[in-house]
Design a protein that fits this description.
Elements: E1 8-13, H1 16-26, E2 30-34, E3 38-43, E4 46-52, E5 62-65, E6 68-71, E7 74-79, H2 81-93, E8 98-105, E9 113-119, E10 125-130
Parallel strand pairs: 1-4, 7-10
Antiparallel strand pairs: 2-3, 3-4, 5-6, 8-9, 9-10
Amino acid sequence: MSQFNPFHLAFPIRDIEETRSFYQDLLGCEIGRSTEKWIDFNFFGHQLSAHVKPEELQQALANEVDGKNVPVRHFGALLEWNAWHKLADKLRDHGIQFIIEPYIRFKGEVGEQATMFFLDPSGNALEFKSFQDPSQIFAK
């Protein structure tokens, strides 16, 4: 990937303050613009807009992938290998309950990656991944 093109994602939340704390304090996201109804985050170089709209929240439905129940609706970030491990340790230290515990998927195969899934305070599913070899991100 030669050029970085940040994406924008808007998603529903139930409470501004718990969302601010989770994304800023736990995940380390800088805060951008905000009102009492929405807040923007610098999510690892991408723009997330969290909107207070609890009636739009849905339970994370899962699909079986490699014998694990992966939430169908999820978003996240690809991190550098050591940063991924550091985040996994931080989440464990803060008592975050994982949907899928941090582990290495496709070990020794094409596309080998570290992955983990957990929920934000509003129940939005997040996945964080890492590849020791970034050329494997889109490998078949």
